[in-house]
Specification:
The protein is mostly helical. It folds into 2 domains: 76 residues, no CATH class; 194 residues, no CATH class. 74% of the residues lie in helices and 0% in strands. The chain is built from 13 helices and no strands.
């Protein structure tokens, strides 16, 4: 797929360059009035393109190639954006042993991606999607993560896993832990939903590669703490959650629904961790 994409980009650039240096070949009238490109066949051959063109066919192909290149660039940028949390976790947690650094790098990466993507009507999109009877029941279901994690923790935790030691190792003690509680429960789900739903909203029906990538970076964070057989269940739940939030954003026309339910889930995880520590 990468090779096909590179070829399409090269071809599109060849067509555009050929037109730029042969601007006298542009049609002087409406569609159907241009002469065939037979007389400039040698030029097209030199550029590696089919010389048998009419103006209509030529400009249709040019439009298709330009659109293809635009899609390739957007898809590549989205894939890079999906890898931001992996880089943040590897640098923050595994290189510098700081959970806060990982979170801040992640969020800086999200803001940077937003700057380059420049989504239209972001504020109205973030606030849209509240008018649904599913909102309150979904928030309640997501909040149930707290008792599930709390009561299942003895089975979930790895044999050599110790939550207080794990948190201390990554700098989550004292005021840094207390500050994480509101930040992770409020700011984090807002930024994360804007990020992931923004890059994956048009993926269509069914599971997406972005659902896989969303779940994967969480496993990168948790694999030292949770017993490995349970990681498969956690991965599946996170993939399903990503799909549900992506579906709800498309179905209800905004990010408010996934943001609020995501915040309920994150807050529930933090609440369960708090009671496990006391």
């Amino acid at each position: 797929m990468a090779m096909v994409g590179e070829i399409e980009v090269v071809v599109a650039r060849k067509v555009e360059h050929f037109l730029a240096v042969n601007d006298d070949l542009a049609p002087r009238g409406g569609i159907g009035e241009g002469r065939p490109f037979q007389s400039v066949g040698a030029g097209f051959v030199e550029y590696g393109l089919d010389p048998v063109f009419t103006h209509e066919r030529h400009f249709v192909q040019l439009a298709e190639l330009a659109q293809s290149r635009k899609w390739i660039i957007a898809s590549s940028m989205n894939l890079i954006a999906a890898l931001v949390p992996y880089v943040a976790v590897l640098l923050g947690m595994y290189l510098f042993h700081s959970a806060w650094l990982a979170i801040l790098l992640y969020h800086i990466g999200i803001v940077t991606c937003l700057f380059f993507r420049r989504p239209v009507n972001l504020w109205s999109t973030v606030c849209g999607g509240l008018k649904t009877p599913l909102l309150v029941p979904s928030i309640v279901v997501c909040a149930m993560v707290a008792p599930v994690v709390y009561f299942m923790w003895p089975w979930l935790v790895a044999s050599d896993g110790n939550l207080p030691e794990w948190m201390a190792y990554y700098g989550l003690t004292g005021w840094t832990w207390l500050l994480l509680i509101p930040y992770f429960s409020i700011a984090h789900p807002v930024l994360e939903e804007i990020h992931w739903r923004g890059i994956a909203l048009k993926e269509g029906v069914g599971l997406s590669r972005y659902d896989f990538l969303f779940a994967g970076y969480h496993i990168l964070v948790l694999f030292q703490l949770i017993h490995w057989p349970w990681l498969f269940l956690v991965f599946g739940v996170l993939m399903g959650s990503s799909f549900f939030w992506r579906w709800s954003a498309a179905r209800f026309g905004g990010y408010a629904f996934p943001i609020l339910t995501h915040a309920a889930a994150d807050g529930a995880v933090i609440l369960a961790a708090y009671f496990l520590l006391v």
